[in-house]
Amino acid sequence: MSRGSSERASLVRTPPYTSYRTFRTFIDDLREQGLPSRVDRSVLTRFSGVVGTQLVHALRFLGLVDGAGRPTQALADLVRAEDEGRWAEALGDLLRKEYAPVFAIDLETATPSHFNEAFRRAFPAADAVVQKCVTFFLYAAGEAGVKVSGRVLKGRKPRSLAPRRKRFAPKVPPPLAATPAEPRPEPPRADDRKPSEFLLTHLEPKEMDAEQLTAVWTLLKYFRARGL
User: Fold this and answer.
1) Is residue 175 situated within a structural domain?
2) Counted domains in the chain
3) Do 81 and 89 touch, CB atoms closer than 8 A?
4) Degrees (nearest 5) of the Cα angle 172, 175, 180?
5) Angstrom distance (rounded) from CA 185 to CA 183
6) Which domain range does residue 195 map to?
7) Are residues 50 and 115 in the same domain?
């Protein structure tokens, strides 16, 4: 590591722990707007105060701005590399320079414990902060084409930075209204039937004697004669 890098590392020992997406957004802004005279809050208006502070910290660690926030040649080269289609190569060179202690091990074959030991030894910090630092590094390494052991990536493999496509739930056509069944004709109520019909409904000739049958037939004749 160069003397300048060593001095920066001694001043800013903690690697970037902001979101890598924030870093990429900032680089894209510089491509569109150009490099400012210095990186301060007036340039970082799209980021919250905390995120902006973390971003400046990341830029300083990576040697992209100096102590006063002025862009370095490294930042100009990185932005130009994006325009020239050399982003992965330029980013990889930057990572190898600023994360030199981590690249001292074989990242392609490193075990999770070996990787964590090397990272924590080089950049000691609180566990929660180290986890964020590692996440930033793995995202950056992935974009730079750095080969990292699948064992290290397992369980925390960086997701794609491509914009998420909004998923729409498939439209389900409303259920067809059931064809109403034809109403069954209701049996005639007792009140709606003629007396003769009602009488015949309850007539059981086999259970009646001759006198009862004679009386019923007489009554039926009476009903029918009156149209009942």
Assistant:
1) no
2) 2
3) yes
4) 170
5) 6
6) 190-225
7) yes
